UniProtKB/TrEMBL annotation:
Name of the protein in its database record: Outer membrane protein beta-barrel domain-containing protein
Keyword Cell wall biogenesis/degradation among record annotations: no
Alphabetized UniProt keyword annotations: Signal
Signal peptide: 1-19
InterPro entries associated with the record: Beta-barrel_OMP (IPR027385)
Length: 231
């Protein structure tokens, strides 16, 4: 019996020593900064109501860096580039004496977008699976160009042309579901349910919806003081 008690005491002291050497996850200083990559179906529209000129692009991937402001709130800055370019035959018409007239539609829209995003959850931040409300303000520096033309016997004549360039902006909002894979990696899926061009009206924004999947990697640039997060 004494041998068992002594063994238990030695085991308890050993566990205490291990716990001091390797603190549990609750006492590990929080990793505030993270970087990530996101694949999204979102399209960034660029539109000027006064000029009646518009275009857009759908980038494949976004890169971002984030900061955990509190246990329940993250802020992040993203960066992406996209381009939508085409020159297609839009129709074939037969004119006088069976002459053939080809109609072409051309466009070239490209830009750089920098999403500024806030995530917030009212739920327990220690959960492995976490639901966030998310909102983004997205400045876009870009250019759009459209042209219609007709081709007859090898000669192409421009019938319509418009272009615009400058700074545009949109806002989005939705829900994001995060899954903590381990202490370093976190995966997520997002659905944008609200989309609006700032100071502009577009028919596209009425039905614009998008989904995303992404992966975050927690950085440990420096050790934070324990309890550094605000509730």
């Amino acid at each position: 019996m004494k041998t068992l008690q002594l063994s238990l005491l030695l085991l308890l002291f050993s566990l205490a020593a291990v716990a001091q050497t390797h603190p549990d996850s609750a006492s590990v200083p929080p990793k505030r900064f993270y970087v990530g990559i996101e694949l999204s179906s979102i399209s960034y529209s660029m539109w000027d109501n006064t000029k009646k000129v518009g275009g857009g692009f759908t980038p494949i991937a976004h890169a971002h860096i984030g900061y955990r402001l509190t246990k329940r709130m993250n802020v992040q800055v993203g960066l992406t580039y996209g381009r939508d370019k085409e020159d297609v035959l839009s129709g074939i018409y037969y004119g006088y004496n069976d002459t053939i007239i080809n109609h072409y539609r051309s466009k070239d829209s490209y830009g750089v977008a920098m999403p500024l995003t806030v995530h917030f959850t009212p739920f327990n931040p220690a959960r492995k699976v976490q639901l966030y409300a998310t909102a983004s303000f997205i400045p876009i520096l870009g250019s759009t160009w459209h042209q219609n033309s007709e081709e007859y016997e090898g000669n192409r004549v421009v019938t319509f042309e418009s272009d615009d360039a400058g700074l545009y902006a949109i806002v989005t909002a939705g829900l994001q579901l995060n899954y903590k894979i381990n202490n370093r990696f976190e995966g997520y899926g997002k659905a944008n349910l609200y989309y609006k061009n700032v100071n502009q009206f577009t028919e596209y924004a009425k039905q614009a919806r998008s989904v995303s999947i992404g992966l975050n990697y927690n950085l440990n640039l420096k050790r934070e003081k324990q309890g550094g997060f605000l509730d």
